[in-house]
Design goal:
InterPro entries: HAD-like_hydrolase_sf, HAD-like_sf, HAD_2, HAD_sf, PGP-like_dom2. GO terms for molecular function: phosphoglycolate phosphatase activity. This is HAD family hydrolase. Pfam families: HAD_2. The structure is a single chain. This protein is an alpha/beta fold. It has 2 domains: 3-15 and 88-222, 3-Layer(aba) Sandwich (Rossmann fold); 17-84. Helices cover 45% and strands 10% of the residues. It has 9 helices and 6 strands. The protein has helices at residues 17-31, 47-57, 64-80, 93-102, 115-125, 143-158, 173-181, 196-201, 214-222; strands at 3-6, 107-110, 133-135, 166-170, 185-189, 206-208. The chain has a 6-stranded parallel beta sheet, with helices on both faces. Strand 2, helix 5 (115-125) and strand 3 (133-135) form a beta-alpha-beta unit. Helix 1 crosses helix 3 (64-80) and helix 6 packs across helix 7 (173-181). The chain is globular and about 55 Å long. The protein starts with a strand and ends in an 8-residue tail after the last helix.
């Protein structure tokens, strides 16, 4: 089975500052500490990795039970902060998703976001209806492990998935590395903080300036026999 996987932030939609504000609120509520997060240093990390790294930095001991409490707190605060969050679809993203949907290609997300926040962002952008499966940032520290979780979910419902016929689209070197580790085809989009050259150097099979290059995107997947016509 052929499928397509997308990262969320800066691949399909603009990034979310309220997401990390919710992190701060959660640590304040549960540990009574004020944390700082260097957003530039965590591009492409999963929320699980960010949470555990932040805890170590501030000398906090957390186990899986406490981690679940943090996830619940972040989710609640993000929901409270929704009105302050300006989620905007990136140019071309909706066109690409709609065309893939019309082609009956199963679409998934693999994101560093914890699952409740991921779905809220997709809902705000009007994209949630396109996606039938995913892997999320509360489920692992490595992108490749989350990708495998996502593909296992799809396979359990619809049958075997061939990783070599699966594309992952993302805006960071960590997206590309995770896809390569999982044996997927990788497409880097330079709509985040990394250039096409940097994404290519990270090992991306293909790079685009962004999903606004709809023709270029479908030319890439057509080259692999996806049966696409523009």
């Amino acid at each position: 089975m052929r499928t397509m996987i997308f990262d969320i932030d800066k691949t399909l939609l603009t990034g979310s500052h309220c997401h990390f504000y919710s992190f701060k609120q959660a640590f304040r509520d549960l540990f009574d500490v004020e944390i700082e997060i260097d957003i530039g240093s965590i591009q492409g990390m999963t929320d699980r990795e960010i949470i555990f790294r932040t805890a170590r930095r501030y000398g906090l001991e957390i186990d899986d039970g406490v981690f679940s409490e943090i996830v619940d707190s972040i989710s609640c605060h993000y929901l409270e902060n929704l009105e302050r969050d300006r989620i905007t679809p990136l140019e071309g993203a909706g066109v690409v998703l709609e065309k893939l949907h019309e082609m009956n290609v199963p679409l998934g997300v693999v994101t560093g976001n914890i699952e409740p926040v991921a779905w809220l962002k997709l809902q705000q952008a009007g994209f949630s209806e396109y996606f039938s499966y995913g892997g999320f940032g509360n489920e692992g520290c490595r992108r490749s492990s989350i990708i495998r979780v996502a593909l296992e979910r799809l396979a359990a419902r619809e049958g075997p998935v061939n990783p070599s016929e699966t594309f992952i689209v993302g805006d960071t070197p960590r997206d590309i590395a995770g896809g390569r580790e999982a044996g997927l085809r990788t497409i880097g989009v330079a709509t985040g903080d990394f250039t096409c050259a940097e994404l290519k150097s990270a090992g991306a099979d293909h790079v685009l300036e962004g999903l606004h290059d709809v023709e270029g995107f479908f030319e890439i997947i057509s080259a692999y026999g996806a049966g696409v016509s523009l």
